Amino acid sequence: MLIRDRLKVPSKISDGFFRFLCPLCNEFQTAVNPNTNLARCFRCEKNFNTIDIVMAVRKCGFKDSVLFLKTLSMPQKVPAEVLKAVVAGIARPVL
């Protein structure tokens, strides 16, 4: 996952949603929509796409963010249903 693994942003699964520390207001009031791959911070009311997150975390411009993303070996797009199942599985207690 880009936010957690590549950008090293503190993150967690809470209430079935992937949440990360907002790079602008430093709150965990965020959520990622698995259908659109867009994120929102409900505290500072900022919407993020992939490039926006890279720009905010790495403190760089648009071009450098795109070049950074280009260097990553990104997997094929995962269907939203699969992502929801993964999140649901992570949120379940282990017996």
What structural category arises from helix and sheet content?
Answer: alpha+beta
Helical content band: 25-40%
User: What is the first-to-last residue Cα distance?
Assistant: 26 Å
Question: What is the strand arrangement across the widest sheet?
Answer: 3-4-5
CATH architecture: Alpha-Beta Complex
Q: Report the order of strands and helices.
A: HEEEEEHHH
CATH-level-4 superfamily name:
Zinc finger, CHC2-typedomain
Task: State the name of the first-level CATH class.
Answer: Alpha Beta
Low-confidence stretches: none
Strand fraction equals 15-25%
Radius of gyration: 14 Å
Outline = globular
Tally the beta strands: 5
CATH topology, what is it called? DNA Primase, Chain A
How many structural domains does the protein architecture include? Answer: 1
Oligomer: single chain
Instruction: Report on the biggest sheet.
Output: 3 strands, antiparallel
List the total number of helices. Answer: 4
Round the mean pLDDT to the nearest integer and report it. Answer: 86
